[in-house]
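Section 3.1: Structural characterization of target chains.
Under the original work plan, the team committed to producing a structural model for every single-chain target entering the pipeline before any wet-lab resources were allocated. The record below documents one such target. The sequence was received from the expression subgroup and is listed exactly as submitted; it comprises 243 residues.
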Amino acid sequence: MEKGLLLLDGRIVAVVYFRAGYALTDYPSEAEWRARLLMEQSSAVKCPSIAYHLVGTKKIQQELAKPNVLERFLDNKEDIAKLRKSFAGLWSLDNEEIVKSAIEKPDLFVLKPQREGGGNNIYGHDLRDTLIKLQKEQGESLAAYILMQRIFPKASLTALVRDGDWFEDLTISELGIYGAYLRNKDKVILNNQSGYLMRTKVSSSNEGGVAAGFAVLDSMLLTDEVIITHKKSLFLNLDHLIT
């Protein structure tokens, strides 16, 4: 790296796009950590930067849910109240009272590791057994997870298509909003909403990743009314998606 420039085979790298680097297994040795540090310290545009990468972790979500934390970043009390209303309960495993409650009533909680993608969350009896094991181990293993209040959304009968075949089942949907964010040090150049992703899964499934095979891509139809289709009286209630 010369004067902040990131060079590859003598050519300047303008943008670093991280397709990998989100799991601990992507950093098996110090060489990978040094490479990440080199890229972060360069003048190349990082997508995402290490700061933006960390903001998306479950630990940061849990920290933002703590009292008085949102006030550090937002001034509008109305906006803060709206955001807090959307938060589920989030706790670190050093909260002994919450851990005790989760062991006694595991179906009311989800244990989430600091990992990307679907297929990693822990539920039910597995949650109880994992918490008991972590309590015995103590140490850094406790910091690898957070506890979240389990959400029980309303299910709707929906037609799903997979591998060219369709079927009906009770489903729940998850709406994610895309954002475009670009900054140069402390100067924000762009910070806009830029679309959405809707994932729909059968309500009996605990996981919801599309790439992991648990969910399908979907789209929204915003309405103030319940839609009733023809012969089979298929009810598609999207009230929970309307803001």
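The two ends are 48 Å apart (CA to CA).
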